[in-house]
Design a protein that fits this description.
The structure holds two protein chains of two kinds. Chain A is of the alpha/beta class. Chain A has helices spanning 6-26, 34-63, 71-79, 149-153, 181-189, 228-243, 260-271, 291-294, 297-302, 305-311, 333-344, 366-370, 373-381; strands at residues 121-122, 128-133, 140-146, 161-165, 198-202, 221-222, 226-227, 253-258, 278-282, 318-324, 352-358. In chain A, 37% of the residues lie in helices and 14% in strands. Chain B is mainly α. In chain B, α1 runs antiparallel to α2 (34-63). Classes of the chains: A alpha/beta, B mainly alpha.
């Protein structure tokens, strides 16, 4: 009985209803001393309450398209912390060739016209949190920043940056507890093949009310609504460069996101090669999903990674798309379409597009995505510029 | 109100425990005629079930990294008033054309509005409606869609 089976849904609903009826009918038919009767009543009552809650959770999971598809998904979060994904090794063929990285010349970078000074507050898992108003987008929202141990140890070094995008519905917290991104990065770094990144986790849905899959901006500038692309790729990026020792050049900036965040990462790296060099989409999709974009044919095209890679001259950036064979929400076929479209479009030759499918990846949840992180960090480190003193 | 507030998690758990204890303590103490007793007990039972479900949902939401952050998200306007999604209407309130391309420097190096997909107009087969001065919002001439079946557009939730 899988977590998305109809039989589980029916069983939980029936058990919840039966427990409520039994509580009612058997309340005063319990036998034994007073304490034993009380215990029997409490057990029946609590069982019914829990079963009703489970029935609701099963319904939410199924109606969301099946986020948790196997019981392993529920157990995997702790067991894989810092580890490498089982079934991943050997099954994944990635081009290990490191790309040539342009020399970062900080003196070429224009002086910031308006210095963005954000106030940071300590947050969970070593992150610093700030809420600031983006001067270009006008959007006020949250950003979490984490600096590696090397950042404090080497006070004159500038560091590469990964901008991490969460899914919808979701919040930046999804990258912390559920994704364990810091634990995975530090474990991967000890291998020596992964760069010490500054992690930047911005709010992807900063507009109140527009926080659902059908009505969020999907990291795009939507005329008449909000410029979320500008918020993510200019305001947040500028704030990090102004306030931290972050490399300003695109060669040292990577994007990574899961689900809608993966769509955003793929789209933004194709749209802004002057700001990002590489992107990883963890179980993302590649056609706009929200009515904010899909209702307008122009927005629908110019913000679609699949449209861009099929029809335009795409830039010399790198894109890795991952998928889980068990994921029903954003299946592996979506990345396969991107690969096929890139091959078919001669103008997309400059773009380095790769994908892998995890055969036992799990469903559409952080437990599945965090297993992809070690591979993603290694792949990004083969393409981004390292720290510069 | 923040749905990811630890205080909300704490108090929802307290409420669930209190409601459950209330059922156990008050079940045989309800007064009044039979219909009133039936209603009272039904109310007690429903309160116990609901508060427990809320406590568990709040905790699961937090454990999954704050899927739904604010209460107002839960009541998002599914059918917003007309005019809010005027994608093709350019200028107007000036929100996009005015602020988005404004002259605030970002220090990222290079010109701020670098044509991201190649400088030549040929690289942009879909003219942006706001880039055109013609009254007719420029629609792309529906070039062949990438060969994607409709199911690829299926809804996606992280």
């Amino acid at each position: 009985m899988s977590p998305i089976s109809g039989s589980l849904q029916i069983t939980t609903v029936v058990l919840a209803v039966l427990a409520a009826l039994a509580t009612w009918l058997l309340w005063n038919r319990m036998r034994g001393p007073r304490a034993v009767r009380m215990l029997q009543r409490a057990a029946l009552l609590v069982f019914g309450e829990l079963m009703a809650a489970v029935a609701i959770l099963v319904w939410v999971n199924i109606s969301s398209g099946g986020l948790v598809v196997s019981w392993q998904d529920l157990l995997g979060n702790q067991s894989t912390r810092g580890g490498v994904f089982a079934g991943q090794q050997g099954a994944i063929q990635l081009d290990p060739k490191a790309q040539t990285v342009a020399v970062v010349r900080r003196q070429d970078v224009a002086v910031t016209a308006r210095f963005v000074r954000a106030t940071f507050h300590p947050s969970s898992e070593g992150f610093q949190e700030t809420t600031f108003r983006g001067p270009v987008s006008g959007i006020t929202s949250q950003v979490y920043v984490w600096t590696p141990p090397q950042y404090a140890a080497e006070p004159h070094t500038y560091f590469p940056v990964l901008e991490l995008l969460h899914g919808v519905v979701g919040s930046p917290d999804g990258w912390m507890g559920p994704m364990n991104v810091v634990a995975h990065l530090e474990a991967a770094e000890r291998s020596g093949k992964v760069l010490p990144y500054i992690l930047v986790v911005p709010e992807v849905t900063p507009i109140a009310g527009h926080t659902w899959p059908f009505n969020n901006e999907e990291c795009s500038d939507v005329p008449g609504d909000a410029n979320v692309d500008t918020w993510l790729t200019r305001d947040v990026r500028t704030m990090v460069i102004d306030d931290l020792r972050a490399e300003p050049a695109a060669d040292a900036w990577g994007l990574m996101g899961y689900s809608t965040g993966g769509f955003c990462a793929a789209k933004l790296v194709l749209q802004h090669p002057n700001r990002y060099r590489a992107a990883v989409s963890l179980s993302g999709y590649y056609l706009p999903d929200s009515q904010e974009l899909s209702e307008d044919p122009v927005l629908d095209h110019e913000n679609s990674p699949l449209w861009l890679i099929s029809h335009t001259r795409t830039p010399a950036v790198s894109l890795l798309m991952t998928a889980s064979a068990q994921d029903n929400v954003d299946p592996a076929s979506e990345a396969a379409k991107m690969i096929a479209a890139a091959k078919a479009n001669p103008q997309a030759r400059a773009t380095d597009v790769q994908s892998f499918v995890a055969p036992l990846g799990g469903g559409h949840n952080q437990s599945a995505w965090e297993k992809m992180l070690p591979t993603a960090f290694t792949w990004l480190s083969q393409r981004l510029a390292g720290p510069t003193p | 109100m923040l749905l990811t507030d630890p205080a909300l998690q704490y108090w929802s758990c307290v409420a669930a425990i209190l409601a459950t204890v209330a059922v156990l303590v008050l079940w045989n103490r309800v007064q009044g005629p039979a219909p009133v007793r039936v209603l009272s007990r039904t109310g007690l039972l429903i309160a116990g079930y609901l508060t427990t479900a809320v406590a568990i949902l709040v905790s699961v939401n937090i454990a999954y990294g704050g899927l739904i952050v604010s209460v107002s998200d839960l009541f998002a306007d599914v059918n917003p008033p007309m005019g809010q999604f005027m994608h093709s209407a350019c200028g107007g309130d000036g929100m996009h054309g005015g602020v988005g391309n404004g002259g605030v420097g970002n220090g990222n190096g290079g010109p701020h509005e670098v044509p991201t997909l190649g400088a030549a107009a040929a690289a942009q087969p879909w003219p942006h409606p706001c880039a055109s001065t013609s009254a007719e919002p420029a629609q792309p001439a529906q070039p062949a869609q990438p060969a994607v079946p409709a199911e690829a557009q299926a809804s996606s939730v992280p």
